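Homework help board

Subject: predicted structure for assignment chain

Our instructor gave us this sequence and asked us to write out the predicted structure in token form, then describe one feature. I got the tokens but I'm not sure how to describe them. Can anyone check?
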Amino acid sequence: MKNIKDAAFVVSIHYDVSDRASRINLKWKGNREIFDFQLDCLGKVLNCETETENAGWVIVRPYPLLQKCSVPPLSQSGPAILRCSDLVRPGDAIPLRLGREQLNGFHH
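My token output:
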């Protein structure tokens, strides 16, 4: 993970085809909570939780305009699942919500 304290980074994504939702696991540095980040840029937030001091998860459903889903290549083993690949990928940064650094006592 990069040495950046003003963003959370996507660690993994787990898709639930039946619910059309994704659980996105995030990690960050610094004294933050999951809701300090711009989670709404990922889609409609259904649930989220800070699990540890530097990690948490969010369950989102893509906004209707972002639901460009595709089936993975046939060469992959296992059942075919839909993936909303335009949403987010591991390693992507999710920025802080505007003003959160002041609310937490941090000044940049």
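Reply (TA_rk): Your tokens look well-formed. For the description, you could write something like this. The first strand starts at residue 7 and ends at 16. That's the kind of observation they're looking for.
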